[in-house]
Amino acid sequence: MNEKVFRFTEIEFYYYHEPGHEDTYTHPHQRAAGEWRFHSQGFDLTLEGDEGTKDGGILIRGLYGPTSENDEATASYVNGPRKVLVKIFEAFGSAFEPGCIQLKEAAEWDVEVYKVFRHIPNKEKDRDFIDKPYRYLVNLDNLDIHKGLKGPIKEKMQRISL
Question: Is residue 29 within 8 Å of residue 83, measured between CB atoms?
Fold first, then answer.
């Protein structure tokens, strides 16, 4: 975005499909895949939705950046969907300059990727999907996650190979 690069450090998948995967934590929408969807929790990259039988999105929970090709010194970790949204909007810069949030394939980043349970504040809503490993993260020790939550994450996270 505006020559600035952000890397995702934490994402969560939400997907609802009838029949068989009725994850009620998923927010319904009727959008095509690959759109940015802003909501009260932050923003998602949409998975295709239709008239109530399937919906989904990838919630962006953490970022590392911004960086440019020659500048790692100013980059920082940002965690929490709303904080991520603020960081993205700050990167837009001037309201009079064209800006765009665009997904691009980046140079390889030498990090280990882990999957773990999602961060769901209301755990009473749908017990079937609370502990599903639909959250992916990197560099846990650098992420601004409450210390009380890092322990359970470390206990349950599983490394994935790419």
Answer: no
Report how far Cα 50 is from the mean position of its chain's Cα atoms.
22
65: left (phi over 0), alpha (psi -120 to 50) or beta: left
Q: What is the DSSP string of the chain?
A: -TT-EEEEEEEEEEEEETTTEE-TTSPP----TT-EEEETTEEEEEEP--SSSEEEEEEEEEEEEEEBTTB-TT-EEEESHHHHHHHHHHHH--TTS-------PPPP----EEEE----S-TTS-GGGTT---EEEE-GGGS---HHHHHHHHHH-EEE--
Distance between CA atoms of residues 12 and 29, nearest Å: 17
Q: In angstroms, rounded to a whole number, what is the distance separating the alpha carbons of residues 51 and 48?
A: 11
Whether the CB-CB separation of 1 and 92 falls below 8 Å is answered with: yes
Specify the pTM: 0.76
**Residues 75, 85: Cα–Cα separation, whole Å:** 16
Percent of the chain at pLDDT exceeding 90: 20
* In the predicted structure, residue 100 carries a pLDDT above the cut 70: no
